[in-house]
Amino acid sequence: MRDKTAMQELDSEHLKWRGSVRAIVDATIDKVWGMVSQTKRLPEWMPMVERCTDLAGEEGQVGYVRLVSGFMFPQEDGERSWIKEKLISIDPSSHSYAYKMEASNVGLDGSVNKLKLVDYGGQGSSTLVVWSFEIDPLEGVSQDGIIDFLGFVYKSSIARIGNAIQAGATLA
């Protein structure tokens, strides 16, 4: 027989809202990984991120914590959004990682974002970027509405990766 706490944890796990987006980036998997795996480059390909600051740990290591700020999600008071994210998994050999949103002023605490890259196309000239996410249900928000909004934000970000890579190559 399960105790009440175990049942609540099980129930809350089943109540997660999930979504994913995917798109092709016209760049090699190594170039895309070099862009998306570096915190300092986040503002280059996430249109609403102004700043990404190291808070704890070492980038690229599980446990690393960063603070992302900008206008990712509209705030009623016009203030910038901020999200404290913790790296919970990373595997450079499979070009994947996951961050958990630990605290924020956007209501997405506990959400998990996962990014996975797949070599796509004959000579490795393209990369499939898969961005999946799961969030706890939000009061007063429709599940479809928030899944669509996050999907739009993340798909827009993926679309900018190729341009950011080309801009970086032009500057080099």
From TrEMBL:
| Gene3D superfamilies assigned | 3.30.530.20
Q: Which Pfam families match?
A: Polyketide_cyc2
Q: Where are the transmembrane segments?
A: none
Spell out the molecular function terms from Gene Ontology. Answer: protein phosphatase inhibitor activity
Name assigned to this protein = Lachrymatory factor synthase
